[in-house]
Amino acid sequence: MSKRIDLTSEYQYRELQSRTRRHFIKQCTTGLGGIALGSLLGCGRSNSTNTQADIEAFVRKQVPHFAPSAKRIIYLHMAGAPSQLELFDYKPELAKLDGKDCPQSLLEGKKFAFIQGVPKMLGPQAEFSPRGNSGMMVSDNLPHFSSIVDDVTLIKTMHTDQFNHAPAQLLLQTGSPRLGRPSMGSWVTYGLGSENEDLPGFMVLVSGGNTPDAGKSVWGSGFLPSVYQGVQCRSEGDPVLYVSNPSGIDGNLRKQTIDAINQINEKEYKEFGDPETLTRISQYEMAYRMQTSVPEVMDIKDEPEYIHEMYGTEPGKTSFANNCLLARRLIEKGVRFVQLFDWGWDMHGVAEREALDTGLPIKCKPIDKAMTALVKDLKQRGLLDDTLVVWGGEFGRTPMQENRGGKEWPFKGRDHHTEAFPVWMAGGGVKGGFTLGETDEIGYYGIQDKVHVHDLQATILHLMGMDHEKFTYFAQGRDFRLTDVSGKVVSKVIA
Amino acid sequence: MINQKNVLIVLSSAFILGLIWWVVRVVPLENKHKFIPQVMLGERVDFNRDIRPIINNKCIACHGGVKRSGGFSLLFEEEALEVNESGERAIVPGNIKKSELIQRITHTDPEYRMPLEEEPLSDEEVALFSRWINQGAQWKDHWAYKAPEKPEVPEIDFKWVGNEIDHFIKAKLEEKQLSPNPISDKQSLLRRLSLDITGLPPSLEEMQDFLNDSSDNAYEKAVDSLLASPAYGERWAAMWMDLARYADSKGYEADRPREIWKYRDWLINAFNENIPYDQFVKAQLAGDLKSDATDQDFIATAFHRNTMNNDEGGTDNEEFRVAAVLDRVNATWTVLQGTTMECVQCHSHPYDPIRHEDYFRSMAFFNQSADADVPSESPVLITYKEDEDLEKLAQIKNWANENGDEGRKGKYYTQLLRLGVPKLYAHYFYQMDKGLPIQGTATFKVNEKVYAFTKALSFEGEDRLVFKARTNGDEGKITFRLDSINGAEIGTWKVKARFKKEFDEEENKEVTYYLNEVITLPIKPIKGKHDLYLVWEGKEEVEQTSTFEWLMLHHALPGGDKENYPEIEQAMYALFNSEKEKETTPVMVDLPANHQRISRVFEKGSWMVPGEEVDVGVPEIWNPFDKYEENRMGLAQWMFSEENPLTARVMVNRIWEQFFGRGIVSSLEDFGSQGFAPTHPELLDWLAIKFREDLKWDMKKLMKEIVMSATYRQSSHYTQEAKEKDPLNEWLARGPRLRLNAEQVRDQSLAVSGLLSKKMLGKSVMPEQPEGIWQVVYSGTKWETSKGDDKYRRALYTFWRRTSPYPSIISFDAPSREFCLPKRIATNTPLQALVTLNDPVYLDAAIALGRRVLKNESADVNTQLSLLYSLAMLRGISEEKLEDLKDVYHQTQTYFENSPEEICKLTGEEDKELAVLTVMANVVMNLDEFLMKS
Q: Do the Cβ atoms of B807 and A241 come within 8 Å?
């Protein structure tokens, strides 16, 4: 018995040896001329495969759980948290309380970022009127937006668990207040893939001079493979990092070099049979296509004048308006998830530019114009039906005036507030001219139809055709989902 | 003819069999399995192999650590056997009739049938459960929770075999009917080995020596020399830095820089000095608790000071201190024990027998560390750099050694100065403002209208109070009083402002800046617990405020009656306030006994809802903790006990994964029942015991064992057979073919082009990075490109900012290091292609490689291209590939002939040949084979 095994293994071994030797001979080098170093290196490769396999697609498309009403998302995140009381939540009662001490009942057991002791109430710092056919109450800070209210669902009763920017942004964008989880855009592209093989499925645009407080983690892929992380488009320098050729190499030469790389890689594949090599070939092709498609899509110069007029765009600048227009262009190209961050909404009132009566109207102007233009533009192109636009901050602001350091400040500001804040959505299968939820008389608590951050995420996934409870990824010993362990779809907002 | 006797025998045997069957199936007797012959109970069912997978897939979601529907849980044996809410017992050993579980999984009414609203169990699964219960429902611990026992090495007779590892591998290959690949060619082998051990490709000379060496032990010599190379420490430190979540910034909003590079250097040196793994871990978990702890021991503990620190305004320091402590628990269990303890923070483990309290018993080990999420990151170990400071420190040490009593000798005072523990931070104080107590944040204040206090401070006769404060006037005094604003005065500070005046160009006037100062005061020594009040006293209506950062009680220097005492006291004050250059490293230091925290269970994992008090401890399922000291050192020692089932397995598996790209247990982070089962359980145990017993935790020897195997040395080509039967290379019928990791991709390009700096250790560096990457809020920190050689250091020295990591490193799947990452997943993306094609760092490397080729004066294209390829790949080029390169070479030449103005743009020189070779180098350095190790 053992004798037989001996012979078999002997045979196997010889067979392998001879196969190897054959390839040594066949594949060996042409020699390295007179150069001493290289000539000694020789060439040795063993090989045994000659399978021709098709080059795989970049991102595997996955089927949604049910028919989606939205195919794409543009998420406009106002980092820093805009004040609902000067924009969407009309509170005449609060005006009457202006300057009075805040009742103890609102302070007990609460944590604030900066409010200390007993603050004063602060009346609304803007005028409100009913707008559109629906009569949605919107402040004078948003004159343009008032023209699209009938396409919008406004949720006035969002609430969150986190009263600091970074954790609250993470909770909103990743479902967890701590770093390390995949962002909404990563989840969505992981689930649905990209519709365009020349561009990444999840792209990020930042304005306002800073990245969000929580850094790039708000578009990170967490434990999902890094191919699903958001790709940041920049307005200065390369629109996507390293997308431009080094100076001295033009597109044509780049094409020739990538072709050469891929030709040699194909030979490598024939030799080794490693499917990763095929993937690399396709990724180099996509990299090349991105070199053309990204600068093309990022270049807004050729947009007609009336579009620039409508958005308030200025080619070559970094602005929220430019990013809105870019978002439309990316969506048109089939990008799945476009995430905008605009920094500078954290109006504590410690300086004039962050005062609600002076700074906020200035901050609102370009934003109002551009976000309105985006919705109108999507609509006129017939894209709004299956594109979901979401707008909002990471939390709201207190009905009390901030008294940082326990003192009264000359400017009117509000502190971070978790109990009630607004989010509006348009297109992608949500109702138009619809307001969900009601807050109490001073806009402190939601008293009807409260919507938690996880509920919003569940609803967004639902509109994209995914069941947030079934959409999971196994990592660190358990299944994770965007909505963690809670979240209910807000069916009232769905058309 | 029917034989009546036979009929009788048949009938009576049938009757007996029937009787037994009836007893087995019908008679409601418990523990029947004890009386019935084994053969009657069917093929043996193994709990771990047959039953646990069904429980974990189909039952445990509702009957486990998270939910206990119907009061029934399958997590622990004793729980599974209990009487449930229904009054029935789910599992009655030896009796399926009485076992409610069997009734429920076979029930016809969908409202009763388990699993509810899911597909019923298959007949096969029901049969397994029934047989298992009939056989006595024997519960078994999960394999990884039992200490490994040394397995027999399988006997294999096969020429390919190099060492024992191959016996295990070949035995499995035979079972799977796969045949191994032959040993790889020498060029591939040395490149693979060198990248694996040192993270760098071999030099041409090393390759040549190896090719020229035809002795039998040529390979072994190469292994030994690579393991002895200083680059070895750098490569393995980089691996460990993911586990330690090493970064040069604090994380969270402002993500300000953190000085902790000495820990990185400690790692590099520890690997190079080949500190045994047990010492390596003990130093990192508890170096500070060694009786003879050196600076290096303290620096090693920075392993757990790599947790994030939140400097965002308005955050609760205690919340983020707790977050850091929880992170230490998670990282400890993930890295060292392959256990997903995270699950247990909120509830008992859903799959593994670990209880909710166990998490907080683990947490209690780490809860006594003196750090508290303060911006200074205290405690930090101060290393004075200037002679003047060092002299003072030596003076104080000598003085105390000469004059101090036991416990108050030099060590006490050097630690007081260099570590400063325990500090009373500002957030331990309340400032009383208009009748409302307001908790301090980074500071607390005291002025005419506001006093401050802290509660229940433990005094032990200290006669000195030292504090860091800033004040903007010289009026009055601040008194320190016990228990109330009018309580007994124990000390007084005559307030005095420290300031500097500077001319402000913008405002066009002189501006006064008030400065912090560390003040030391004599106080009345007292004992016991008291509240401490800080009250300003002086004439009324003064616009003056004193702001405190921390306070600390200590004992005054001894020898107060000596002549030059004032001088030595002055030296101490000067050191406290020294602004000379010094290096600091955050370290772990436990609070003294009288300052220790109480550890509690957090209900549902929320730190806001503290529950029962808990002591340190480990989950019961593992070896007992009784005989160990109740601190981090005890925990470290417990991990290295012979009975510990996980420590050795987890580490050998981690090292295995680094070489093969896949662990024997592929879920490195989870050896629990939800993790993957080992592909080669016997090999894992054999290696674990070898590592612990024979190798005495010697990591280099373990690596040598692995790379000496024929398994490792196989060529990595895919055979058709292996492709079909083993696409993931689980059974190792071929050698590893893996993409280089992020650090290696960069380091290799710099190495083959000759740019790589050999400089080791020291502060992190900032190589070239595109503009505008760092746009972090509330932080003026700038990326300032390092000069000279520092631009081309190995990747592990690159400044690592958590919220804006170095882009090209991140593209290649390095983590942001916010949390420990047990395993990187290698992806393959177009963004990676853009990095190696276009990142200026890679262009620099291409130019340098082009120059290296030009140094050889041959202008023959074949020669040039072959050399270029050989310099990069350390092998000769095949004819086919050379043809491809030549084609693009000629295209490039034509391009530069037509557009000569591009030549200088590319390389900064008017040298067409260099430009063409630069483009060729760029091509070669983007080849699949260059980015992979085969």
A: yes
| Confidence bin at A39 (pLDDT 50/70/90) | very low
Helix (H, G, I), strand (E, B) or coil at A144: coil
Cβ contacts below 8 Å, chain A against chain B, sum to: 358
- B443 three-class SS: coil
Q: What is the pLDDT of residues A157-172, one digit of tens each?
A: 999 998 888 889 999 9
Give the position of tokens 């071929």.
B734
Q: Is residue A187 a contact partner of residue A483, using CB atoms and an 8 Å limit?
A: no
Report how many domains make up chain B.
3
pTM of the model: 0.81
Rounded to whole angstroms, how far apart are CA atoms B241 and B231? Answer: 15
Q: Helix, strand or coil for residue B176?
A: coil
Helix (H, G, I), strand (E, B) or coil at B518: strand
Query: Phi and psi (nearest 5°) for A473?
Result: -140, 130
Q: Which of B140, B159, B185 is the last residue of a domain?
A: B140
* Boundary of a domain, candidates B101, B123, B140: B140
What is the rounded (10 degree) CA torsion for A438, A440, A446, A448?
-50
Q: What average pLDDT does range B359-381 have in this prediction?
A: 89
Surface-to-core class of residue B928, CB atoms within 10 Å of its CB (0-12 exposed, 13-18 middle, 19+ buried)? buried
d(CA A297, CA A282): 21
CA distance A408 to A137: 30
Spatial contact of A320 and A342, defined as CB atoms under 8 Å apart: yes
Helices (H) and strands (E) in chain B, counts: 33, 19
Which residues of chain B neighbour A212 with C-beta distances below 8 Å?
A: 777
Percent share of chain B, pLDDT over 90: 55
For the stretch B477-518, pLDDT in tens is 999 999 999 999 999 999 999 988 888 887 788 888 899 999
DSSP string across A248-313: T--HHHHHHHHHHHHHHHHHHHHHH--HHHHHHHHHHHHHHHHHHHHHHHH--TTS-HHHHHHHT-
In a domain, B926, yes or no: yes
Range of the domain at B94: 4-140
Q: Which of B825, B840, B928 sits opposite A225 (nearest CB)?
A: B825
Taking CB atoms and an 8 Å cutoff, what residues of chain B touch A281? 928
DSSP state of B178: -
CA dist., res. B559 & res. B566, Å (int): 10
Of the candidates B471, B526, B530, B529, the residue with the CA atom closest to the CA atom of residue B495: B471
Q: Report CA dihedral (B733, B739, B741, B747) to the nearest 10 degrees.
A: 120
Written as six digits, the tokens of B728 are 């993931």
What single-letter DSSP state applies at residue A485? T
Q: CB within 8 A of B143, min separation 6: which ones?
A: B48, B677, B678, B681
Does a structural domain hold residue B824?
no
Q: Measured between CA atoms, how close is B24 to chain A, in angstroms?
A: 39
Q: What is the pLDDT of residue A24?
A: 32
CATH hierarchy code of domain A72-235+317-493: 3.40.720.10
Q: Best interface-test mutation with B: which of A13, A41, A253 has the largest number of B CBs within 10 A? A: A41
Sequence spans of domains, chain A: 72-235+317-493
Interface probe, candidates A241, A245, A285, chain B, greatest B C-beta count within 10 A: A241
